[in-house]
Design a protein that fits this description.
The protein is an alpha/beta fold. It contains ten helices and ten strands.
Length: 238
C-alpha cells in the first residue's frame, strides 16, 4: 500500500484534565519524513500518542489519507494504516522474538516475518530468545519490525534511538532511510539526537510548551541559529 498524507488541524489533547497540546496544526504529505523536535516535556510524545488515539482529545481533527480518523479508537486507526512504535517499545517480554513478530502480521502469512529478518538480521539470530533476553537495541529493532510487518501507511517513531549505543543508532537510522526510500510510508520521527533527525528528515516541526513554535526544512533550521538555541537548547549542530 502507498504512503498516505497525515493532516492535523488545531489539535488540542492531554491526559485527564491536563492539557499538553494546544492548537497544533501541520500536514505531512505522502512519503514525507517529518522530524518532530523540542526539548523534554514539550509535548512530542503526547503528539504521537494522540495521533495513535491514546490520549484525551479536547479539540481539533486528524485526517489519515483523507479520512477523518479523529473519532476512531486506536485499534481502528492501526487497521486504517497508522503504525506506532512507542518510546517504551511495548514488546511482549514473555514471548520469543518470533512470536512477537507473528503478532504484528495482522493476518498476513507467517512467512512474511522474513521481511523483519531482512531488515534486522540480528533478530533472526535472536528469534528464539524471549523479549526479556534482548538488549535495548534489539528490543527497539523488534518493536520497529513488528509494527512495520503490519504495512502501515504512516509510521510514528517515538525516540527510537534513546539510550542506545552509536553503532545500533546507525543501524536503526539506516533502516529508517531504506523505509523512506521505498515510498510506502510517511514517517514521523520524534528524536532527541537532533543531527540524526535533521539528516533523516525533509520537514521539521518544533514544539514548545505544547504549541507549534517552528516549521520548515532541515536546511532552514540549521541556518536559524536563534531558533536552534531558543527552542532546542543546544549551542550548535554538526
Amino acid at each position: 500500500m502507498p504512503a498516505m498524507p497525515l493532516e492535523v488541524d488545531n489539535l488540542s489533547a492531554g491526559y485527564g484534565p491536563t492539557r499538553v497540546l494546544e492548537g497544533v496544526s501541520f500536514t505531512a504529505p505522502s512519503g514525507a519524513r517529518l522530524a518532530v523536535l523540542g526539548r523534554n516535556g514539550m509535548g512530542k510524545t503526547t503528539l504521537l500518542a494522540t495521533l495513535a488515539g491514546q490520549t484525551r482529545r479536547y479539540g481539533g481533527s486528524i485526517r489519515l489519507g483523507g479520512t477523518d480518523v479523529t473519532a476512531f479508537a486506536s485499534a481502528k486507526r492501526a487497521h486504517g494504516g497508522l503504525g506506532y512504535v512507542p518510546q517504551n517499545r511495548a514488546i511482549f517480554p514473555t514471548l520469543t522474538v518470533e512470536e512477537n513478530l507473528f503478532v504484528g502480521l495482522k493476518g498476513r502469512p507467517k512467512s512474511a516475518i522474513t521481511e523483519a529478518y531482512e531488515m534486522f538480521p540480528r533478530l533472526r539470530e535472536r528469534r528464539k530468545n524471549l523479549g526479556t533476553q534482548l538488549s535495548g537495541g534489539e528490543q527497539q529493532m523488534l518493536s520497529t519490525a513488528r509494527t512495520i510487518l503490519g504495512r502501515p501507511n504512516v509510521l510514528l517513531l517515538d525516540e527510537p534511538l534513546e539510550g542506545l549505543a552509536p553503532v545500533i543508532c546507525e543501524e536503526l537510522m539506516a533502516a529508517f532511510v531504506e523505509l523512506a526510500k521505498s515510498g510506502d510510508m510517511t514517517i514521523l520521527l520524534v528524536e532527541q539526537r537532533i543531527q540524526s533527525a535533521l539528516d533523516f528528515a525533509d520537514q521539521v516541526i518544533i514544539l514548545e510548551r505544547g504549541l507549534l513554535a517552528w516549521s520548515g526544512t532541515p536546511q532552514a533550521l540549521s541556518a536559524d541559529r536563534d531558533a536552534v538555541e531558543r527552542l532546542l537548547g543546544v549551542g550548535g549542530l554538526e
